[in-house]
Amino acid sequence: MEIQRVPVSVYAEMTPNPAVMKFVANKMVVDLDHVEFHNIEEASISPLATALFHFPFVKEVFMSSNFIAIQKFNVVEWETVTQEIRQFILEYLQEGKPVLTGTPTVAANESSDGVVSVDQEEDLGEIELRIIDILEEFVKPAVAQDGGNIAFVAYEEKIVKVQLQGACAGCPSSTLTLQQGIKNILQRMLPTLVEDVVPV
User: Fold this and answer.
1) Alpha carbon 184 to its chain's center
2) Is the pTM for the entire model greater than 0.85?
């Protein structure tokens, strides 16, 4: 009996950041929360990201579960290159080539700007853990839809510090997202404990 293979499909999706296009697959791309590559050297553990950096307009590559978000240099318009990138990713995944061949280092997975990792969470207080839970449950799914990620960095004097990654980093509407979305959620769920949310 022959096993039926599900054909791989990939579609391109605009993000709020005009420099970033999100390429969504109908299968898992990486089994990590996310991994981010800022240059071809960081991408050495990902044959797919390395190949994408060979396109001269690719600035950064962000991968999460079933999508790849690509940030471009402002030398081309997405209309002229989206189909080529989509086709390249589609063929790569169809051929079953490895996406990751190693474990991301701290530099590739999170820039070491003090982002709290899972094993550091035991050192945090009750408020910090509650903030992380809120970000995970209510904020992360929304920013992931836009091709990005958010990570908790610190909580000091009623100020929550976060790091925006992927499409959210450098996005023109990220300030609005922080101020109106994330800040409002945290203030509603933790009244009197959060005065502001700032990116690092």
Assistant:
1) 22
2) no
